[in-house]
Amino acid sequence: MKKLLAALLVLLFLAGCGSGNTPAPAPSGDSTSDQVVEIEFWLAQGNNVMDLVNKEIEDFNNSQTKYHVTAIQQENYVKTFSNLQAAIAGKNAPDVVLLDTAPARQLYEKGALVTYDEFQKNDPDFNADDFYAVYADQGKHTDGATFARPWYGTIQIAYYSVKAFEDAGVDPDSIKSWQDLVAVAPKFQEAGYQFAWEPMGGDGKNLIDAAFANGAKVLSDDGKTVTVNTPEWVEVWESFRGWIHDDKYMQTHWNGIDDWVYWYDTIDDVIEGRSAGYTGSPVDSVDFDFDVIRPLEQFGWEGNVSMPWAQALMLCMPAGNTPEEQQGAYEFIKFLTNPENQAAYTMLTTYPAANKRVTEVPEYQKFLEENPVARVLLAQSEHASIYPVDPTGGRILNELNIAAEKIEIEGVSAQEALDEAAANAQIALDEALAQ
């Protein structure tokens, strides 16, 4: 719409000029000095979140007179990316777009994103230390450029049944590692609980999180070798296989079908007293009674602190728009990621804020007192992992998910499943690096 409006203004301007008089172009930066610069923001969020976003956009629009932001709600993140690619090809890209980290990086490497570096350099309010490194670093390229700013993150955390731990006589604060949990697993079963824990199925994420706590790496330091079958991986994944299939301390409802039934069945097991706890999403807690189910940080591995995979959702500025639009995009992103708006977003969604300074906001301070999940997420954000850049476009992760399914559902040995995953992933990596 803004592009159409700009084109009509140009036509009207030309129509008002004599055919024999072509004015000299206005100096750069002055051409829109008396006009409101339209900023288009694409994002995929639920309707309740969009209500908040639209309120924040209204606040931004009312806070100044130079820029006017309009949000365009997208169907989902995949559709956002495909629609954005089409818009870029048609030279009609939005000014701001919310993307997963991998597609954002992909667009930057194709020259399709504006970097933040000059804007941040000229912004006296910008302080890199305001943002959690585990989220901010996902928007930085190895060439040194910042191609995206995190809006919020997500990390899976542990949830436990208060009654189960009381019945078993186990102090939840004493569980710092998976080994700590397994050591007291018989106590839960003696107290009448069928399982001590349920790692959430659906993919290999929970097992990946645990492996990262054991120092596991997806790729070698030079990025040329897939390393998902090293002892650091096998030890962790074989332990889970044994805890599920041999010891019966754990179970998974995952059946290889991505229908979300397994997710709700897992939560029901904890609520209804069949399991003492599970690993899940921050969003799960929206409907929890914290007198019944409470959160913990994910468990570490033996003496190592937990290092779960933290994912960031990134605000990006597509290339091809005018300097005025790019500046407006930056100003809006700056507004959207300030402590007050970050606090409002995380209080509504439970997703952890990217900006550490949310803790300075009085409303959020009160929220922290009332919401234990928020406190856990802040602490977990201080020690988490970044899944490495995957040159294969996700084929390595797909192989890990297949291996996790074989281990958790079929009981295949971790060495066998991970050897196969590594071999297949290496083929994909070699192909990608050869291109």
Oligomeric status: single chain
Q: Helix count, per DSSP?
A: 18
CATH architecture of the largest domain: 3-Layer(aba) Sandwich
Strand content: 5-15%
**How many distinct beta strands?**
10
Name the shape in a single word.
Answer: globular
CATH superfamily of the largest domain: Periplasmic binding protein-like II
Strands, helices and their partners?
Elements: H1 2-15, E1 37-43, H2 47-63, E2 67-73, H3 77-89, E3 96-100, H4 101-109, E4 113-114, H5 117-121, H6 133-136, E5 149-154, E6 157-161, H7 162-168, H8 178-183, H9 185-190, E7 198-199, H10 205-213, H11 231-246, H12 261-271, E8 277-280, E9 293-296, E10 311-318, H13 323-336, H14 339-349, H15 362-370, H16 372-381, H17 395-410, H18 414-434
Parallel strand pairs: 1-2, 1-3, 7-8
Antiparallel strand pairs: 3-10, 4-10, 5-10, 6-8, 6-9
Helix pairs in contact: 2-14, 10-11, 15-16, 17-18
Explained architecture:
This protein has 435 residues and is α/β, with parallel strands linked by helices. It has two domains: 34-147 and 311-381, Periplasmic binding protein-like II (D-Maltodextrin-Binding Protein, domain 2), CATH 3.40.190; 157-310 and 385-434, Periplasmic binding protein-like II (D-Maltodextrin-Binding Protein, domain 2, 3-Layer(aba) Sandwich). It has 18 helices and ten strands. It has helices at 2-15, 47-63, 77-89, 101-109, 117-121, 133-136, 162-168, 178-183, 185-190, 205-213, 231-246, 261-271, 323-336, 339-349, 362-370, 372-381, 395-410, 414-434; strands at residues 37-43, 67-73, 96-100, 113-114, 149-154, 157-161, 198-199, 277-280, 293-296, 311-318. Strands 1, 2, 3, 4, 5 and 10 form a six-stranded mixed beta sheet that branches. It has a four-stranded mixed beta sheet with strand order 7-8-6-9. Helix 2 (47-63) links the parallel strand 1 and strand 2. The longest helix is centred in the last third of the chain and has 21 residues, at 414-434. It is globular and about 75 Å long.
